[in-house]
Amino acid sequence: MAKRAALLGHSAVVNGLAFTPDSRSVLSGSDDGTLRLWDVERGESLRVMQGYTASLLDLDWSPDGTRLASAGADTLVTLWDVAGATLPRVLRGHRWSVYGVGWSPDGSRLASSGWDNAIRLWDPATGTGVQVLRDLETAFFGVAWNRDGQLLACGTSQHGVQVWDVTARSRRWVGEAHATWIRRVAWSPDGTRVVGGGDDGHVYLWDASDGTQLLRLVGHHGAVMSVAWSPDGSRLASGGGSRDGGELVVWDAHSGQRLPAWEAGSSALAGHPGVVSALTWAPSRELVVSGGSDGRLRWWDVHSGQCIRVREAHQGTVHALKVSPDGGTLASCGDDGAIALWDLQSGEPLRTLRRDRPYERLNITGIRGLTQAQLASLRALGAVEDEASHSP
User: Do 110 and 243 fall within a single domain?
Assistant: First the structure.
C-alpha cells in the first residue's frame, strides 16, 4: 500500500487517531499536549487545540538539593526551585520529546537527551546551551553521569547504550544489545559498571571502561522500563510489565541471580497492575520505591519482597522517581505534567510543583450557574474553592 501523505506537526509520541464521520478529516492526540485536526486529502493541519500540560518524562535533583530539572514531551527542559520561591526557568533547544535529564556531580552542567538525535549540555546558572552531542542514526533515552562528571551514559533506540567523553566531545564506547531500545541507564556506585534495561525484556551490565558486556539478566516478560542500583552496588532492581501485569525484580548484581523473595511466582508483585514504569532505591538499602502506569507509588521491603505502602501520585503513568541528595525527599513526575514531592520514609505528600494552569488560583467559591461537571473542569484547570463552602 502506497503512502499518501505524512502528517507532520506533533513534537512527541502520537497516542491516538480517529477519523471524523465523513472520513475527510482525522484527529490525532499526542504527548506534546495538543490535539490536531488534519485534512486527509491534502495532508494539512486544519486546527491545533493546545492543552495546558504535557507529560514529564524524567527529572533530577541538583547536587545541593535546592532545584529540580525536568524533561518533557513538549521539547522543554525546566528548572524548578524546590521551595517554590522563584518561577520555573524553561530551557529551549530540543526539537522532539526530551526523555532524559541529569545534573553533573558538581552542579556546573545539566545534560538532556532527546528523540531529536541530540544530547544537549546546559549551564544551569544561566540557562544557556554550551554543547551538543549528536548521533543522527538513533534517538536518545535516559541519561546518567559518572562520578567525576567526565563521562555521560545514555540509552538509545538503535545502538544499545552509548558512553560519551564530554571533554573530548566523542563517544568513548558503545554497548550493543541486539538492537533493542535501552530506555534507562545507571552507573554503579563505584563507577565500574553501567546497567541498562531493554525492550527485549533483558537487563544488561557493561564494563564501564570499555563497554564489554558482563551480564545479561533474563527474567522479564515485557520491556524493562527502569533500573536502579542499591547504594552499595551489590544488588539491582528492574521494573517493567507484560500482559500479565507489572514486573519488579531484585537481582544479585554480581551473580545475576534473583534474590529469593523475588523469584518467579513469588507474591512480591501482588497488587501491581499495569507496568512498573519507574524505580529508585532508597538510601536505607532495604527499600525500593516503584511507580506504575496506574499513577501510584509503592514502597517495597527488599528483604521480604512485600509492598508496605501505596500512594496515589499522578494522573497517568509515573515516568521517573529520584531521591534528594540528603535522602529525605522523593520526587516523582508523570503524564499529568506535575512534580510531586514526598517524605521518603513516611510516604506523606509534601508539595506539588507545576506550571500554572489556565485558571490557577482563581477562587470560584460561591459561583452560581455552573454544573458540577463545569466546576470539576475549572478545578482541574487550577481553580480553587474554600473548604468551608462544602460544609453542610
Answer: yes
